[in-house]
Amino acid sequence: MAPKSLFDELMKHAPPSPRQRGLRAPKVASSFFDQLMALGPVDPLPQQGRAPMRVALHPEIEAELPRIQLHRCVLSVVEGGPQGFDADQKLARGFAICVASLQRSGNLYQGTAKPTAKGRAAAYSKAQEPDALKKERAYQRLLRDAKRARARRRRGGAPALPSVLEAELQGLGRGRGAANRRPAGKAWSKTEISSELGRLRDAMDPVFSCETVFGDCTDVPSAGHCFMAALAVQDILGGEILQGMVKTIPHYWNRVGAWEVDVTGDQFGEARIQVKKGALRKQKVVTFPRERYAALHKMNKKPAKIYDRFRERLVTELTERNLCGYVEHLERMQ
């Protein structure tokens, strides 16, 4: 029988249809939705207001992801900062600068190092940079170096405490001690300050013991007590606490008015009480950040606990010597 049309002639050479092969014919899309579904699974398109799909990160980056932005900032401050400080001091300086900066920019919540939503987004962006892993490892090395620096300080008999920029220390110590409540224009004379320190050091002598020392307990009673004594002097007389190295050992003393004073210098074979107008020592000196030290109480539980014990016993000695004005200042600063 001859084909009825050209179409029938062509169909003779066409491959068998699914129905002819015994297969079910595909369902014809009856709507626009069915036509989309017939295309099969496709990658979702980014939607307005939705975050893009998350990129897989290196495990070391993933573990520190919320803090990546802070770490990167601290590392840049340390690398570009001044020399002459150990790793612990550099880390503390960088941390102080970056926390303050990131709080002002809204990347950290005020008063904490916890990132906001904006901070988390910035951290994730930095975590995807090509050198993210390299820089995070550099920050972790800085942490290890800082830990070793703190350990060296402890072996030297002094607490491991942070230092910050001088600009952040303006006004430090105001409201502490009698030195800040003297009549305007009336400065401490050397005789006055020496007399005050003499009475205070006499009360400290019975307090010095292995239970109030921070570091190794030695035959010299004042050894390892420089930090505790400096805290007490600031609480009673006001002024600032200074920090430096004396004979390769970390040491703390005070600046009260125009005078630099040291009530534990005898541990180095120096005078028991030293008072000098201007700089007492030629070595590099930084101002100790008392408020920052108190704010980082989780890092400084041990020295804080020792100072509480030292202050409690000092209050007892001062009370017995009828130095109630000193006791009032110490108790106010608790």
Explain this structure:
- The protein has about 325 residues and is an alpha+beta fold.
- It folds into two domains: about 60-155, no CATH class; about 175-330, no CATH class.
- The protein is about 45% helix and about 10% strand.
- A five-stranded antiparallel sheet has the order 4-3-2-1-5, with helices on one face.
- Strand 2 and strand 3 (about 260) form a beta hairpin.
- Helix 4 crosses helix 5 (about 85-105), helix 4 packs across helix 6 (about 115-125) and helix 4 (about 70-80) crosses helix 7 (about 130-155).
- The longest helix is centred in the middle third of the chain and has 24 residues, at about 130-155.
- About 30% of the residues are buried.
SSE arrangement:
Elements: H1 6-11, H2 32-38, H3 59-63, H4 68-80, H5 87-104, H6 117-127, H7 132-155, H8 190-204, H9 226-237, E1 240-246, E2 249-256, E3 259-262, E4 274-277, E5 285-287, H10 290-295, H11 301-320, H12 324-332
Antiparallel strand pairs: 1-2, 1-5, 2-3, 3-4
Helix pairs in contact: 4-5, 4-6, 4-7, 5-7, 9-12, 11-12
Query: Kindly state the mean pLDDT as a whole number?
Result: 76
Shape descriptor: elongated
Please tell me the total number of domains.
2
Radius of gyration: 35 Å
Structural class: alpha+beta
How much of the polypeptide forms β-strand, as a percent range? Answer: 5-15%
Q: Treating each run of at least 4 consecutive H or I residues as one helix, how many helices?
A: 12
Summarize the main sheet.
5 strands, antiparallel
Unreliable spans are 42-49, 160-175, 178-185
Beginning-to-end CA distance, first to last residue: 114 Å
Instruction: Please give the share of residues in helix.
Output: 40-55%
Strands in their spatial order, largest beta sheet? 4-3-2-1-5
Query: What's the β-strand tally?
Result: 5
What is the chain-wise order of helices and strands? Answer: HHHHHHHHHEEEEEHHH
